[in-house]
Target: Homeobox-leucine zipper protein HOX7-like
Amino acid sequence: MELELSLGDSPAPAKGTSTPVLTPTCAGKEDHDELVLELGVGTAKRTEQDSQKTPTQPEEDAQDQEEDGEACFHSESPVELSLGCPLLPASAETGSANSEECRRGFEANTVLVDGDTVQGRSLSTSSLPMEVPVRQAADQEAAEDEENSGVGGGARKKLRLSKEQSAFLEGSFKEHSTLTPKQKSDLAKRLNLRPRQVEVWFQNRRARTKLKQTEVDCEYLKRCCETLAQENRRLHREVAELRALRTAPYPFYGHLPAAGFSTARVCPSCGDKVTPRNPAITASSPAVAPPSPVSTLFARPHFGAFTVHPVLRRQPSATS
DNA sequence: TAGCGAATTAACGTTACATCA
DNA sequence: TCTGATGTAACGTTAATTCGC
Model:
């Protein structure tokens, strides 16, 4: 017996991977939930030069800031954008108190007026008595690198995004798992991060989502395998039963009701209607074969609400 | 050339456990 | 013996890097 296990279409099979192919569902959702960013701040033009820099290239970091167009995030020039906050009520976008809360959450990378730096760690800024938003932690890092560049300090510092930043990115990710250059730069400005950081976050987030989905698929395949093994055993037993009955003496048929002869069964293997020559089979088992557990298997589970519409997977660059 | 996926590195946080006063 | 503080190894998470396509 040969059983074929199909998990649906696989639009872009991963090369060299043994993991199940991921098939996004709910395609088209993004068509309606596309986060629209209407900003007039700066341009989306941005080179990826910073992707080539190393932690030991502070001067490029500084240059990076200029190229990003948001070189300095000083308190005297806060970025006021009307980007919708997916995790907050609509009023949060209208400059209300909620909007202030939303924005305050992204000022985690702050320095107290007395000069106590927080090194980009997550902290509750609302409890701080007085603070001013300053350069984002990566910028501090660049500054520190500048200081340490001559001392051979090559250890890279890891920024820890604040809860609010992560939450906002999560919300944005739920809207669209990929970014256009404009979305990237807008998000970066909104969250007080570098565009490169936003890009990296989305890359990592996609990888995590895929990993989770792979785990879900793995569990699903295990269950499929178990159920198919059970089905296989059941069919083997049925075959053995049939063989045993075929060798049974002919008068055996006499004990069976006549109705058994007219009842059609469905072959569980091929799906064809079968009129049993040996009605004993029909009598000893339901007229209609019980629903195979296999048939109920293929409602494939999906991890989370993350979906990628094939059309949206590669969004055209806004600058191209 | 930009953008992405995959693999990898490394920083950081958490937890369990051992040790000691 | 119990308890709280301390140190640390192991492990998980995730930002960041690198490379190839």
Notes: Residues 1-153, 256-271, 274-297, 305-320 of chain A have pLDDT under 50 and may be disordered. The longest strand of chain A covers residues 110-112. The beta strands of chain A are 110-112, 131-133, 265-266, 273-274. Residues 29-210+305-313 of chain A form one domain.
